[in-house]
Amino acid sequence: MNRFQPLVMASAIASILALTACSSSPTGRQQVLLFSEQDMSQLGAQSFNALKEQEKIHTDNKTNKYVQCVTDALTTRLGGQQSTGQWEVVVFDSEQVNAFALPGGKIGVYTGLLNVATNQDQLATVIGHEIGHVLAQHSNERLSRSQLANMGLQISSAAMGGAEYHDAAMAGLGLGVQYGVLMPYGRAQESESDIIGLRLMAEAGFDPYESINLWKNMARAAGGNQPPELLSTHPSHSTRIDDLRAEIAKLPSYNTPKPQCEI
């Protein structure tokens, strides 16, 4: 590398930042987004198809209808291309207490979550939170940061298809190098998705106060195994609950009929 190359690379990155820093999330937080919505949707669809081939899909009709019902109630409120019918929902047979949503309208829910999210409102809390990650383009943001950190790599939409980007792309989507291993987003992104998801579930007619009960259940399920907040990318359960209470107090009144989803 000659002595001018670092300056050229730094200048290129500065130019990219200048072009993309004006992007804002649904809560007004500034973001750097390098990839197009089409790029991210394609990556999400490819990853979801691969995951469906590897993971065991839960075939119980009653459970699938229940998860689909909750998801439909939420996505109906989105409108446009994000509305109901544009989201593919799959229930995976696994003890993982987790769920995820990918760009392109892909949602995965693990059966283990249903033992902790004990009613439709609590399940809506989790699914709304995961949809929040997609609406706020957190995968794009994380993948963009990864690309900027690797200055020697070509930053372009064409690079999305390269094999050398596979691991970084999976990390960007939150799936990890091995499918089925979910990786947390950063603390700011998690908190932002909590806010977006809370607003969405309340607008859809779910009880936002059940989000607090959900995280109390999560705390009990964790059994005290959550690391200290400073060492974790997730807010602590107590911080999350306090933040949710503060956000619930700001919610407007909605006249949406309460969904009737039963398992």
- Helix and strand composition category: mainly alpha
Strands of the largest sheet, in order across it?
Answer: 3-5-4
Task: List the helices and strands in order.
Answer: HEEHHEEEHHHHHH
Low-confidence stretches: 1-11, 151-159, 177-181
Tally of separate helices? 9
Characterize the biggest β-sheet. 3 strands, mixed
Q: Topology, pairings included?
A:
Layout: H1 5-20, E1 23-24, E2 30-31, H2 37-54, H3 61-75, E3 88-92, E4 99-102, E5 106-110, H4 120-135, H5 138-149, H6 166-173, H7 187-203, H8 210-222, H9 237-248
Parallel strand pairs: 3-5
Antiparallel strand pairs: 1-2, 4-5
Short description:
With 263 residues, this protein is mainly alpha-helical. Helices cover 48% and strands 7% of the residues.
What key phrases describe this protein's structure?
three-stranded mixed sheet, 263 residues, mainly alpha
Structural features, described:
The chain has helices spanning 5-20, 37-54, 61-75, 120-135, 138-149, 166-173, 187-203, 210-222, 237-248; strands at residues 23-24, 30-31, 88-92, 99-102, 106-110. It starts with a helix and ends in a 15-residue tail after the last helix. The protein is built from 9 helices and 5 strands. The relative contact order is 0.14. The protein has 263 residues and is mainly alpha-helical. The strands form 2 sheets. Strands 3-5-4 form a 3-stranded mixed sheet, with helices on both faces. The chain has a two-stranded antiparallel sheet with strand order 1-2.
